[in-house]
């Protein structure tokens, strides 16, 4: 993040602007000479006006540096005001000397009968107030730029803190999901170990693969749908051992959508919810369908099971669904949706997010 001391003086715009004002001033002086039926002295006119304005363009660097160190903005400090008063007086006097010297060089015949003192006092009395206004304008300009930059830094800092907070909250939610799943799986292994140690051992191996994959992706808030399906495959291996021939799983995910990003560990809670409240409650064969599609800039993930219908008014969301819904809100705001309902003789959970290939956090 850029600090105030890192901001450099805008030499090119300031000096360029002063040169432009000098040229316009010279053009105005030449026009006045023509209106008064005097011969237009182009080069003397340019020499006596342009350097005078370029002086302020170069001196603006000093005004910029002093304004940064001794700002006149609130809170009021007498030391800062006196510093600017001294610098303004010094620059006005220096500018007067410089302009008189340039003028005497440009118009040697017109100025030879008058001494330096006469020209200096005359120019100071006629242009001194205007030069003080130029100094004040520079101070005001630089303070406005500084205020704008300071506000921008504060906005960037606030956005940075907000992003870090969102990441921390998402990480906490992600960690909440993993122990929830782990405890459920260990309980299933414990029950199965008493009746079929071979199948229990297979479940333990699949659990190890799943945990390894989860650890590999623990720092990522989003991963490709392809990697998410790979994680889900380990979980489905565990459930296929647990329910043996009772569970049939079909996955219909087009290759074209597999590279889109989804929240890490987002499908597994939906599938676990379908298994726990649908498959586990059926006595006969159970069906589980997992699908994905992309249309109109929206990525839609779906998990359907042929379990008993649910009463939406009585549904109490568990850790998996509630946490996934919270993660969608934090990642995508109102653009992320999670819906649960009855469909096609079973229960359907759909997750919708904007199609994107770059992480949102």
Question: How would you describe this protein?
Answer:
The structure is a single chain. By secondary structure, the protein is an alpha+beta fold. It has 2 domains: 155 residues, no CATH class; 159 residues, Heat Shock Protein 90. It is built from 9 helices and 7 strands; from the N terminus they run ααααααβαββαββαββ. It has a 5-stranded mixed sheet with strand order 2-4-5-7-6. Strand 4 and strand 5 form a beta hairpin. The radius of gyration is 38 Å and the shape is rod-shaped. It starts with 10 loop residues before the first helix and ends in a 7-residue tail after the last strand. The relative contact order is 0.07.
Keywords:
9 helices, rod-shaped, two-stranded antiparallel ribbon, 7 strands, 361 residues, Heat Shock Protein 90, alpha+beta
Structural class: alpha+beta
Q: What fraction strand?
A: 5-15%
The CATH architecture classification of the largest domain is 2-Layer Sandwich
Mean pLDDT: 80
Total number of beta strands: 7
Query: Helical stretch count?
Result: 9
* Secondary-structure element order, N to C: HHHHHHEHEEHEEHEE
C-alpha termini separation: 18 Å
Shape: rod-shaped
CATH level 3 topology of the largest domain: Heat Shock Protein 90
Order of strands side by side in the largest beta sheet? Answer: 2-4-5-7-6
Per CATH, the superfamily of the largest domain is Histidine kinase-like ATPase, C-terminal domain
User: So what's the CATH class of the largest domain?
Assistant: Alpha Beta
User: Unreliable segments (pLDDT under 50, ≥5 consecutive)?
Assistant: 1-6
